[in-house]
Predict the structure.
Amino acid sequence: MLRELSGPKVAFLREPQLSDELFVQLRDMIYRKSGMFFNESKKYLLERRIENRLKELGLEKFEDYYYLLKYSPDGEEEFRALLDEITINETSFYRNAPQMEVFQKYLLPEVLKAKKVKQLKLWSAGCSTGEEPYTLAILILEVLGAGISGWSVDILGVDISQSALEKARKGEYGRYTLRNMPLRLVQKYFVKDGPIYKVREEVKKLVRFEAINLLDRSQTNKIRGMDFVFCRNVLIYFDAEARRRVVASFYESLNPGGYLFIGHSESLHGISRSFDLVHFPKVIVYKKNERISTVMSHKPLVL
Ligand SMILES: C[S@@+](CC[C@H](N)C(=O)[O-])C[C@H]1O[C@@H](n2cnc3c(N)ncnc32)[C@H](O)[C@@H]1O
C-alpha cells in the first residue's frame, strides 16, 4: 500500500536536516518498538538510514516521516521497512568456530544423552539471514548421523527484519558467507548452482523461521521447552533494560539445564544471575540453573 503511494527515489534539492529534538523522538520510538538504542554518537548513522527511507518515499522532511510513522494508517508497515534499513544483519555460517566446536563436541552430545524423549529444540534469536540456524542444523546432522530419523529436531530462527527472513527462508547463499565453514561441510550440505550455494533439503527441513520481536513478550511467551538458545551479536544493539527483558524471556524458554550462547563480546554481567557460567577454552556458555530466576528486575517497555 505504502509503496503504491510512494513516489520514486528522489534526489533532494536541499539536504533534509534532522534536529536534535526529532532525533530523540525517532530514536525513542525505535527503542520502544525494537529495543535497539541509538545514542547521540549514532545520530549520523540513524540520520543517513532514515534519509534512505525519505528518498524512497519522496518525502523532503524528517518531520513528515515522523508523522507518517506515528499517525498514518501505513505507519506500522513503514516501521517494518525502517527496521530493514536500520538493523545490522551481518552474519556468516560457522560464525565463531570455537563456540560451534563446543556445541558440537561437548554440549550437544551431553544434552542428547540426557534425553528421555528424542526431541531437541533450539532457538536462534536474531537469526538474520539464516546462517546461524542452518549451521546448527548441519552440526546436529553431523552428530546424529543416520540416527536423526528417530529424532524430532526443531530449530526456530527468529528475527525482526522481514527482508532478512525472506533470504533465510530461501536458503541460497554466495561463497563469502561460507568462508568459515569447513569445506567438507560445504560440499556435504550445499548444492552448488553456479556462484550460488543452496542449502540441502535435509538441512532446511530442520529449521523454520518466524518474524518475532524479541522484546514482545506476547510473542516470545509461546517459545518454550528449548534445549539451546543462541542469541549472538544481538544484545549489543540493546540497552541494559532491553537486555534484561530479552534474557528473562530466554530463561523462561529454556529447559532446566539448557544452554544460552551469546556473542563473544557480550556478557550477562549486571543483566542476570540466573545462569551458571560454563568455561571452555575461548568460550563461555550460560547454563540455566535450577534455582529460582534472579534475572535482575526490569522495567516494562511499552510496545
Ligand atoms: C548482527 S545480526 C546477528 C546474526 C546472528 N545471530 C549472528 O551472530 O551471526 C543481529 C540481528 O538481530 C536482529 N534484531 C535486532 N533487534 C531485534 C529484535 N528486537 N527482535 C528480533 N531480532 C532483532 C537484527 O534484525 C539482525 O538480523
Notes: The pocket of S-adenosylmethionine is lined by residues 34-36, 87-91, 95, 126-128, 132, 159-161, 164, 213-215, 232-234, 237 (CB under 6 Å). The first helix runs from residue 2 to 5. The beta strands are 119-125, 152-159, 172-173, 190-193, 196-199, 207-211, 226-231, 254-262, 275-280, 283-288.
